[in-house]
Amino acid sequence: MDEVLVAEDIRRQYGDTVAVDGVSLSLSAGEVFALVGPNGAGKTTLVRALTGTTDVEGHVALFGESPTAVDRDRIGLLPQDCTPHERLTAAELLDYYAGLYDEARAIEAVLEDVGLADTADTWYENLSGGQQRRACVATALINDPDLLVLDEPTTGIDPAGRRSLWHLLSGLADRGVTILVTTHYMEEAHELADRVGLLADGHLAAVDAPDALVAEYGGQSKLTVTGEFGETVGSDLPWPVEQSTGQLTVYEVEPRDIGAVVDRLEQVGADYGGLSWSEPDLEDAYLELTGRDVTATAPLATGGQQR
Amino acid sequence: MSRVGRIESELTAARKAFLRRRTAVFFTFFFPLLIVVIFGVLIQTRPGDGGLFTEPPGYYVAGYLAVVVLFTPLSRVGSEVARHRSGNRFEKLATTPLTRPEWLVGQTLVNVGIIGLAGLLVLAVMGGLTGTTLVLTPATVAVLALLVAVGVALFCGVGALLGSFADSQDGVIAASNGIALPLLFLSETFVPTTLLPEWLPTWLSPLTYFSRGVRAVATSGDVSAGATNLGVLAAVAVVVFFAGALALPRTD
Predict the structure, then answer these.
(1) Do A52 and B95 touch (CB under 8 A)?
(2) Could you tell me the pTM of the whole model?
(3) Structural domain boundaries of chain B?
(4) Are A114 and A195 contained in the same domain?
(5) Is A77 helix (H, G, I), strand (E, B) or coil?
(6) What is the mean pLDDT of chain A?
(7) In this structure, what CATH number is given to the domain that contains residue A273?
């Protein structure tokens, strides 16, 4: 596939702080790539590096050209903190950005896409936080870009609006638009992205398809039981366990095996209040890769196969 | 979209954004009128009596116009740049076809319109309250209009520099006041050179050429002298305008 974006060994330092260090990645046409990491991981600096709005060491090319030389009609950017003219209406805001491009989409259609058709004539400052964010997303869509770069697009948007935006972005990707999105919502990255880059302390810890990352780094499924147990409650279970005060975690348990765990709890007269079963996810993979594995904080394993 | 189209889009958005800030609009027009009323009516000029206002009323037309040409672009463009910086608007604009000079042209045109209106108001009020008569021929009016437009462009450039280098909107306002006040009184506007120390290089201030040009055409009808000062002002304006445009940040 054609490479829309290529970055090689990107590095950006602010004083003594290295914000991005040695990041390399490439995006193909129509691909959705999610950069995932907590606040301070370097996502926004990397976005600025890739869009040419900050100077970096290393090489960046968009459509084969430098970010500052590329045809800007082909790029749509949503900065992380976007506060446009507060006293323009949503429609006027889009009209303003539309006027900066050679060709632009119909304003009404873009407002419809982001769910702001009914508030087109409301001043930006009078929109709700989620509506403001959607108006900002709309400014990135107005020129019908080939490469869409969205820095935390769903921050402040309610769950329904978030899913609606995911649907919109998926549709754009199906039409061949390449999308780079940053987020700290793992669910969002998993839902949206063809590939995910896990960013920590300015480094890309891993890049792969979400399922592949989870399979490789996410660990096992687990059953978490809360209640009051004796120290040996998990000793006879044929699965790895961890036990702490008020919580028993049983790993590698399939849903069909949950009954066996419950039987064991009943046998020993455990007073358990809740059970929850979960599969590993991107958050587990991220925590594993960055050395902050939540499961490692659970001490006092007793019985069974120790982890 | 053509360059003209992009500038028009910037101009339209900036104009609407300004006109919807009622307090800013009110004081943009009220401030210069206040100056005319205080200096021209309350204090009044007393030619030959000594003191600060020793010249005939017509002398001060340059000063009254300088108030709007100097203060409004400095504070408006400086604040607008600060607002753009805090809202990451320049980061967004850097990925659009709009260039930094085009952005500043759009902002400057809005200011030329606003200050043109404020200038007309100042002249009308001045004429009404102080009885000053100006030499108004097509040539003098044309040079006067150009002096105002070029002066606005120059100080829009300075405002862009201030907004780009100050670390906050408060800093922009403080810096613009700190620059504007000495310029206003040391540029042959309100205070004639005879009342200033001989060593003071008033020729270094671009506002001096604005004052001389306005005075030449508006009170003496000397179009040639007005045009000469306009030329100097324009040369400085070109340099400062592009310096201001290039200083605008792509991001912070």
Answers:
(1) yes
(2) 0.86
(3) 3-247
(4) yes
(5) strand
(6) 88
(7) 3.30.70
Per the structure block, which two tokens stand in for B113? 């319109």
Joined tokens for residue B219: 């009170």
Q: What is the mean pLDDT of residues B119-134?
A: 87
B251:A53 CB<8 A: yes
Name the nearest CA neighbour of A298 among A230, A225, A206: A225
Is A87 within 8 Å of B251 when comparing Cβ atoms? no
Could you tell me which chain B residue has the CA closest to the CA of A86? Answer: B17
ipTM of the modeled complex: 0.89
Distance CA A56, CA A9 (A): 10
> Which range of residues forms the domain containing residue A106?
3-216
Same domain, A20 and A137: yes
Enumerate residues 3 to 22 of chain B having a beta carbon within 8 A of any beta carbon in chain A.
Answer: 5-6, 8-10, 12-13, 16-17, 20-21
Residue B192: pLDDT band (50, 70, 90) is confident
Flag whether residue B238 sits within 8 Å of chain A, measured between CB atoms. Answer: no
pLDDT at site A301 = 32
Answer with the one of A186, A216, A246 that is the final residue of a domain: A216
Residue A114 belongs to some domain of the structure: yes
Same domain, A99 and A195: yes
Q: Which candidate from B1, B12, B88 shows the least CB-CB separation from A81?
A: B88
Q: What is the pLDDT of residues B1-27, one digit of tens each?
A: 689 999 999 999 999 999 999 998 898
B221-232 exposure pattern, b = at least 16 Cβ within 10 A, e = fewer: ebbebbbebbeb
Residue A58 located in a structural domain: yes
